[in-house]
Design brief:
5 helices, 8-stranded mixed sheet, alpha+beta, homotetramer
Chain lengths: ~200, ~200, ~200, ~200
């Protein structure tokens, strides 16, 4: 299921167009990647409008995150490498910045996870075949120290939930294909937006 | 008013583009169908992004729901068959997942119906020619047992209201044509979004 | 400033595309018109999706509202005629259905007008050159009796405000040109959406 | 980094399309400018729909704001001149009208600044490299007297924050390039929308 470089670039560009249209990529924020057939990672370079990406806006790093061209990847590349390392079946990662995720994580500022229960959309997550269950989506405090963050995040990835939140920052979501990663992000943002309303005064 | 297969496919694809743009088809959720001239049902296959459907994403089942090609239809196909069986004049059904419907049905978790009154848009429903009336839109609890759900739903369909809600899941709406089904969904989602605000603190 | 028929049709179609994109024309709701060079009125026929109008969806009535082809105009045509009769400089009228207008007028159900004050956008209304003023936008109760409604509305039109609301129904806005009518509708919907938030608990 | 006239016109038109799509340019509101290679300012003329600008909708003034063709610039041109004068590295300015900015500044009507803290998006502002900081975004009371407003605004520009709000009116944001100005506006509107929710009852 791992794409070649040209396919990865096309899918990253198309994901950016979709995510920007939803309002989840304000002000060039976010980064997207795919694991290639050869095990390297194609990844967006910082600073480009995500709704208007061109092939120039994609670079390659190796499986440890070492740049394979002379551009410097985003510091958050380390978080992508963390997910690819822990989860060998993952081939696409999307990191988005939504108002819902930002407001939720800032309002509930001591919450370490958000429980999502009784949503039909939970079935988008792998190995879930009923709404009648619950998932604890992890929330990590924001930091600019990506190594420290990765040490916190990596152990939690074993829970099998293909997404986590960073407080005041945004969402990471992933899957075996770009289509799966996009569905995870869509479903998670949808449920987060619902929770934000449900947990406010009715 | 029943379409041939090619027309049905075109109208289903176009409905998906419209509904996805409204945010009512997140993460491939939902399913759409039309009853054909020959009495069979053309219906979306699960797992495709609803805003980017292709003819491949449509399959056919007979009037009892038996697949006519070798793909497996969505389990919710049974709910479509239920509506087509009870309502012979119905030729198009749209099932959407909106934030409004999800939040409303989860917040008001014991409500069996939502009363919609004094909306000009009520005139979209068949046989209603004034805003000065009310409609009780049914809400069913979610389940993965489609046969059980159909036993609950079918008797209620006699009320003539061309729509119902499933809690934490979404909306079913229908009509004689795809245009009518789409108007029913648009009007119902509009009134639901209004009720959600009107029933919260002002 | 009055257009010929072909220009009017093109401007009505284009207005519909814009208004539908804003969510102000759900389920075919609303109607739009322009006064032609010859004094007749070009107006949308009911029942078409407003975002996908074609020339077929426009008909002509004379200055008293008598149909000039063999189609029946919407009952609300009378409200358009009322505005054109009282305001000779008006050549374009847009009637929209927004969630904001619907929720506001249903929540504040005894209010006969909504005061809009200290908005920069008030300068869109004719003869207003500062934000430091206020406008009382009229709200009429909904009815299916268009003659009765017109008797209520017509005297109020003398106030010079190019817009009014119908409770649980929507907004009428107008101007000398379609561009002016559209700006009036945009500015009014914007201020209404702000008032809805400002008048709820903060 | 200063563009020639044709590039400036193209970037202004494209910015207008983007901003209008976000709902930040209702009813022709707002104005956009760029400083040219020759030190003159290309700027939108009032009264055009910002999402549908044509080269006709752009005029030129000199560095003091004197029109270089026979059209009259918007009164707010003076605010643009103020920013270009105080900040020599600024070459693009965007002035938007959003519901979020309008509601926030009207609701908190005595607030002279809004504190934005702990947002990853703060890193969009120049010289900020961590979310773990705060910025006080200035809010000025609205007035039609642009000279008086400029006297209030100019001294505050020295704070280095590339944006300010005018109460009940909108946002000014700027940068060295149009891309930077657009990112500043996007990030600021995003954080404002979050603050509006975070400061209301949860």
């Amino acid at each position: 299921m791992r794409p070649d470089y040209d396919t990865a670039v096309a899918e990253i560009i198309s994901a950016g167009q979709f995510l920007a249209k939803q309002g989840w990529a304000p002000a060039t924020a976010g980064n997207y990647s795919m694991r290639l057939k050869n095990g390297c990672i194609a990844m967006t370079v910082s600073g480009f409008e995500k709704g208007e990406l061109t092939p120039d806006a994609v670079m390659t790093v190796d499986a440890e995150g070492k740049p394979l061209d002379n551009r410097r990847p985003s510091a958050e590349m380390l978080l992508h490498i963390g997910i690819y390392t822990v989860s060998p079946e993952t081939n696409a990662i999307l990191h988005t910045h939504s108002k819902g995720a930002t407001v939720f994580t800032k309002r509930h500022k001591d919450l370490k996870a958000i429980r999502l229960a009784d949503y039909e959309l939970l079935k988008i997550y792998p190995h879930i075949s009923t709404h009648d269950t619950s998932v604890d989506l992890p929330i990590f405090d924001n930091t600019q120290d990506m190594k420290a963050l990765r040490e916190e995040v990596d152990p939690v990835l074993a829970n099998g939930i293909p997404a986590y939140l960073i407080r005041g920052h945004g969402l990471y979501g992933w899957g075996r294909t770009m289509a799966e990663a996009r569905s995870v992000v869509e479903a998670t943002e949808f449920m987060l937006a619902c929770e934000l309303e449900l947990r406010s005064v009715a």
